[in-house]
Amino acid sequence: MRFASILARGLAVAALLLSPSAIAQVAEQPEPCPRLIATGPSLIQRAAVKTDELGLSFVGHATFLLETPKGVRVATDYNNYVKPRGEIDVITMNKAHDTHYTERPDPAIPHVLRGWNPRGGPAAHDFTLKDLRIRNVVTNIRDFRGGTEYDANSIFVFEASQLCVAHLGHLHHELTQEHLKQIGRIDVALAPVDGGFTLGQQGMIDVLKTLQPSIIIPMHFFGPSTLNRFLAMAREHWPVEYANNPSLVLTRAGLPVKTKVLVLPGN
Questions:
Q1: Contact 196, 11 (CB under 8 A)
Q2: Which one, of 208, 224, 233, 215, lies nearest residue 265 by Cα?
Q3: pTM of the full structure
Q4: Three-state DSSP class for residue 201
Q5: If residue 182 lies in a helix (H) or strand (E), which one and from where to where?
Q6: Domain limits, the chain
Q7: Tens digit of pLDDT for each residue in 61-120?
Q8: CATH 3.60.15.10 fits 53-263, yes or no
Q9: Beta-sheet strands, E only, within 148-245
């Protein structure tokens, strides 16, 4: 999938939004993520997932498809621009920009988990469907006035087949010890690496060093130049590998001994 080019203007400086008592320090107001080109349903097909496996496919931008052995299919950061093909059982959404959520998700999707609470306060999800558990850890975001919107987005953690996958969402700040405690052990981190609309690239490196996942999968990078800047920094800490296919099958036994960055095709 291809995305619209990023406007060649300065990006907002990522603020540390760690608690309601913190004061957001933002150089300028953030702009919306670049509008995605609507290309229709993804060509990613249903995976044949065995008992101890978890299917994961990069659909595009910040959207991934997870598939469990019992057939549960989850789409992350579900929106109106990038969608996986086929029936979906659960969607997660984050509200920083409309490329990460929709106000009108497909009514055929039975379970909609928003990373924010429309009624106010933090969202709280700990949801189990067949062999999949989904829970969230709330984070803050910059608003369009340069301030802080507390508890407005979430890191979603997916647990299945003895694996834990964390989708870091539209993360705008580094993580506190309380965040890390709630997240727990992570095997795979799906990390936004654009460095401007979300947390700066060095900040994201620091977050990933703290989380210590076995596999880091970059997302939310808009194009090769931004991705390559992140990878150049990442190579100082971890090996980088490129996959030929946007879909892979994860197993606990197949996890690398040391952390690696795995780049899936797409953007």
A1: yes
A2: 224
A3: 0.84
A4: helix
A5: helix 177-183
A6: 53-263
A7: 999 999 999 999 999 999 999 989 999 999 999 988 888 989 999 999 999 999 999 998
A8: yes
A9: 148-160, 163-167, 188-192, 215-219, 240-242
